[in-house]
Amino acid sequence: MIGTGHVMRCLTLADSLREHGVDSIFVCRRLSGHLGEYIRTKGYSVEWIESKNDQFRPEEDAISTKAILEKAAQPVDWLIVDHYGIDRMWEAKVGPLAGRLLVIDDLANRPHKCDILVDQNAYDRMETRYVELVPPGCVQLLGPRCLLLRPTFYEARRSLRMRDGIVKKLLVFFGGSDPTNETAKALRALAQWPGGAPPFHTEVVVGSSNPFRQEIASLCARIPHTMLHVQAENMAELISQADYALGAGGVAMWERCYLGLPSAVTVVADNQAASVRYAAQQGAVTFTGNGADSNETVYAEAISRALESPQALTEMTHKAFNLTASDPLRMESPIIATMMQMMNEDTTS
């Protein structure tokens, strides 16, 4: 099982490739909360791997995936894998059915057999994390300078306003599923604000798979100047318009950093911890701890500090820009450029 953020980054990759005339097919399992129908609404076909239960077995998955690739209407140029349970054994069995193989990872805890390895997170000694885990010749695209972003983010960066450190709009987004319900904790902090209403507008974003949507909607209705968005399609716009954010780690954190949005970040999944701490050490975010340990007070204090520290927020914006190499002239991700270059080389060779 992979989280909503993984599905969204695969959709971002597919959308970017579509701009280059590349068609994409998603191979998924019918797990609880799956986003198969949402993927279809974005214009992609979905092939289902049938299973009797939710337990992932790499050997069975490889057989099922091979069967899907073998019946594809045309040869597969790229096989893209984003799954923590897949390693070199699976890739060696399925990879030969595709021209090239790209793996998205951030754990660096298992070997891979791939042409491109992507890890968009930042860590200490990042450049050596995968040296022993990928074959010679594998292109490693590492760090938030290799972010995979939707075109709307590049457009938003080109027209981004200069923030002055004054919090007039707060963005609350803890990922698509938000398993520890950080959204409700943050909203309860706002509902208890001294004087009855916070001195800013609040935009709240949840995914369609969030199991706490009803509770969150009820809380939003109690707080003045608060709007709820479900499965928002305009995240770049919401980030650009905000002055401060409460959110989770992962892809969403790097999206905020790319658009220079100061944020307090909570770890809601173990794989987020190292990169969130690194970003905090670089001054690009503030770290509010783990979701299992957080509460309303944590978020109330984070917001209060932000309101009192406009200069600190301005500095955080610049450090976030630096960490992500945020450039208003950039048009697409280095990942797409590298993939297209390899495809062109394969065509001409």
UniProtKB/TrEMBL annotation:
GO molecular function: glycosyltransferase activity; hydrolase activity
Active site location: H6
Protein keywords: Hydrolase, Membrane
Residue positions binding substrate: R150, E255
Entry keyword Membrane: yes
Superkingdom assignment: Bacteria
Protein name listed in UniProt: UDP-2,4-diacetamido-2,4, 6-trideoxy-beta-L-altropyranose hydrolase
InterPro entries: PseG
Upper taxonomic lineage: Bacteria, Bacillati, Bacillota, Bacilli, Bacillales
EC number: 3.6.1.57
Organism: Cohnella xylanilytica
NCBIfam families: PseG
Gene name in the database record: pseG
DNA repair keyword on record: no
